Amino acid sequence: MEPVDVVAVVGSCAPERSLFARELARETGRMLVPAQRVGLSPDPVAEAVAIAPWTARPAGALVEFPEVTDVAELTAATAAPGSPVALTGVLCVVDAGHLEADLQREDCVIHPGQPQLPWRQTARALLDVTSVEFASLVVLVNWEPLATRQLSTVMALVNHLSPRARLQLHRASGGAWVGGLLRDGVRYDAAQERAGWVTLLNDEHDPYMTDPRVGALHYENVRPLHPERLARLLDDRVEKGEFGTVLRSAGFCRFATRSHVTARWNHVGRMIAFSPLARDEDLGEQDELLALGQDLGIIGLDLDVPALTAALDDAALTDDELAAGPTAWAEFRDPFPAWPTVDEHTD
């Protein structure tokens, strides 16, 4: 049986998202699965994958997802071998006037409990930025009150965060224009490279909308980071806006105190997390290192790129520190949380 064509509508603005989903379903003839329906389940993504194949509409299904949905998990689930659905579009509804503030929120979304995991939480800003980054189309709502200069900045920011997504200003009149938003979609696969930070790392970042305030940086440095200096840089300088407003940065890094581990650098607004991805000793002869040191994509407003680059360089090891070697590095003060370890001999 051929997988059912599914388009997802995501975004944190529930009323606008719901209205747009209804408009789009009506104009395209797709079966609408509202957020209230999949949100009844502890796992909205699994619920959507179970419901969508039952559609009797030739056009397929349109699933509106609640704000707790991790779009990365959605794309992974629908791209899994044997999935009964084919995700051919992710349409993200964004409130144009609130985008910058939404990306700097510090609160978390509590996910519904599941048998294997009673509860978990995710930074709301991270869910918001991921929805934009994975989108094939971003629809800006409530843009009318913005001055032309403000709207230009918002549109360029969205395009820098998601350079392969199309942008559309929502028209309050509704109607046939909505149906024209869907083009022949290509099924989302497991290896998504839409995010702006990913295209920066791949040297493929070429947004078609620009604005004097919106900037991006591909930062590389093969030297490990001194964790104490990095913490001071993030807390005392980056967060306080010394280099402009860094809204999104992500990629790979290494701490000198944990130099055998390549870590994921994942930052949005005021939230940042570092998590282990690969250990050098676990790599086979044919495996490649994810990164020797830092490989970061950085996006923000009013960025002082030279100053930010110099500050990141200063957080890396100096010549003398580098020459001292890992034994000396292990004595550096490391203020970041320890990474959990798993005994390979335990179940």
Map the helices and strands.
Blueprint (H helix, E strand, L loop, with lengths): L3 E7 L3 H15 L2 E3 L1 H4 L5 H8 L9 E4 L6 H9 L5 E11 L3 H5 L4 E4 L8 E4 H10 L3 E5 L6 H14 L4 E4 L6 H4 L16 H6 L12 E8 L5 H12 L6 E9 L7 E8 L2 E9 L14 E8 L3 H11 L3 H6 L1 H4 L18
Parallel strand pairs: 1-3, 1-4, 2-3, 4-7, 7-8
Antiparallel strand pairs: 5-6, 9-13, 10-11, 10-13, 11-12
Helix pairs in contact: 10-11
Organism: Kocuria varians (Micrococcus varians)
Pfam family, one: CobW_C
Protein name: CobW C-terminal domain-containing protein
Task: Summarize the structure in words.
It contains 13 helices and 13 strands. The strands form 3 sheets. The chain has a 6-stranded parallel β-sheet with strand order 2-3-1-4-7-8, with helices on both faces. It is α/β, with parallel strands linked by helices and 347 residues long. It folds into 2 domains: 4-193, 3-Layer(aba) Sandwich (Rossmann fold), CATH 3.40.50; 213-329, CobW-like, C-terminal domain (Hypothetical Protein Yjia, Chain: A,domain 2, 2-Layer Sandwich). Residues 214-316 form the CobW C-terminal domain.
